[in-house]
Amino acid sequence: MLPENLPVYPAPAKLNLDLRIVGRRADGYHLLESIFILIDWCDRLAIVPRDDGQIVLHTPIDGVPPEQDLTVRAACALRQAAGCLNAGADIWLDKHLPMGGGLGGGSSDAATVLIVLNKLWNCGLDAPALAQIGVKLGADVPFFLFGESALVRGIGEQLEAVSVPEQWYVVAQPACHVATAAVFAHPDLPRNSPPNPAADYAARQPFRNDMQDIVCRQYPQVAEALAQLSEHGEARMTGSGACVFLPVPNRERGEAVCAALSLPARCVRGLAQHPLREII
Ligand SMILES: C[C@@](CO)(OP(=O)(O)O)[C@H](O)COP(=O)(O)OP(=O)(O)OC[C@H]1O[C@@H](n2ccc(N)nc2=O)[C@H](O)[C@@H]1O
Ligand SMILES: Nc1ncnc2c1ncn2[C@@H]1O[C@H](COP(=O)(O)OP(=O)(O)O)[C@@H](O)[C@H]1O
């Protein structure tokens, strides 16, 4: 899928271990408090600069026009912000993460492009400048640029590091795509969880996801996936779904749970840091 002999840049997925809606902005966007972690399930990208000013995605995704792909939008936004208007790039994306699954794949792809092209084009932008570009592409992009477990607040732009114990997870993939905007617009969505600014893994427990009940009502496949996973422990939905996850003590246990489910699932490990952390 990627050309041979080129460096491969990973774009890891995220899980929302805890997700609360604590209010709403004047423009209708919801204010969240969420513990985000990175996991070792990744899209893979190859990125090579070109000097004719063109940004070419060689691997368009079915149903996503290249100019709307978050990789291309990230490259264009960086070029604009850095003022290097003649910079171009060849981009190849080897997509592994389910789309619209609440795993943040598109945002992570965008973050990886920002990190890598900031170096390859010698833009010299610092992390806050990249995050400012990123949040306009997607609410989860600043988290991927932050590069470690975080308490994320606002709509995704306020980040604070959180120490999360090393952990394995089973991630199960119901056969549906959740329309995030419709879930946020639902009249019965809980919007008033009490704010709790403590960036502390233990103090925030028990974890929950304020979007989960509405999504389960509207998508029986998500409810069924949660019911199956819950037979093995405390399962929850990630983001606005559709994927659901279960913490497990080790890989062996995770593989055994996957084998017992009747839907696609994989055992993944939490990452302490983004694999590109050293070049962020
Ligand atoms: C809830 C999270 C948690 O990570 O879900 P996932 O997308 O990862 O599942 C994200 O914050 C999702 O943010 P984002 O990725 O920007 O959502 P989008 O699909 O772009 O938003 C679609 C629509 O949902 C509403 N929206 C989105 C984010 C937010 N904090 N409040 C909102 O009210 C807005 O109407 C927006 O136009
Ligand atoms: N590179 C990309 N990868 C995934 N989705 C993309 C990409 N570029 C644009 N999109 C669009 O963004 C939507 C949300 O993608 P994704 O980040 O995978 O979901 P989620 O926010 O639920 O984790 C997709 O349905 C797709 O239309």
From TrEMBL:
One Pfam family in the UniProt entry: GHMP_kinases_N
Binding site for ATP: P98, M99, G100, G101, G102, L103, G104, G105, G106, S107, S108
InterPro entries linked: GHMP_kinase_C_dom, GHMP_kinase_C_sf, GHMP_kinase_N_dom, IspE, Ribosomal_Su5_D2-typ_SF, Ribsml_uS5_D2-typ_fold_subgr
Annotated GO biological process: isopentenyl diphosphate biosynthetic process, methylerythritol 4-phosphate pathway; terpenoid biosynthetic process
UniProt pathway: Isoprenoid biosynthesis; isopentenyl diphosphate biosynthesis via DXP pathway; isopentenyl diphosphate from 1-deoxy-D-xylulose 5-phosphate: step 3/6
Active site: K14, D140
Protein function: Catalyzes the phosphorylation of the position 2 hydroxy group of 4-diphosphocytidyl-2C-methyl-D-erythritol.
The name this protein goes by in its record: 4-diphosphocytidyl-2-C-methyl-D-erythritol kinase
Species annotation: Conchiformibius kuhniae
